[in-house]
Amino acid sequence: MYGIFINAIKAYAIQNEGYPVWQQVCESAGLEDDFFINSEFYPDPILENILKALVHFSGKSTADLYYHIGYWWALHSVPRLYLGKLEKGVPAYRQFILDFPLFINRLSLIYEKLTLTQFRSVKVSEEAIDFFHTPYRLKEPRFSEGVLRGFATLFAVPDQSFTLHLLDSSGESFHYRIQFI
Fold this sequence. Notes:
By secondary structure, the chain is an alpha+beta fold.
């Protein structure tokens, strides 16, 4: 797992749970240092230990914590990494969701050892997009939901403008339908 992802979870924890909780997480996870280089590759157990400790010290369920991390990541990490202009509104959100798999693939050009989380978007109609997410880590459908709802907030799309339905969570993938109203 790259430091960029661990740093995003660290930033989430400090901003939302507080620095003292982050310190407890680091101690519990057995981290000697909490400094991670974005482009450096770290063993997966580091992230797993951080997440287990964060669930414990945040008092949230795993599903709720993953939702909040996904939502936070969409709002804070994507604007720094996305090279396009983030316009507001439903049409821009719809186009971003359709283009999001390409955005993720571009990250592999920056981080060569990156094991990509797989995303796929399919335009079902003018009013619906099917969004498939096969996560490498954070294998919880609530993370995907948090990401999609975070994107909606990022694009200033009110909740009443769309519905989000988890159609399938069997196997390794999560299949959501975004239905625009």
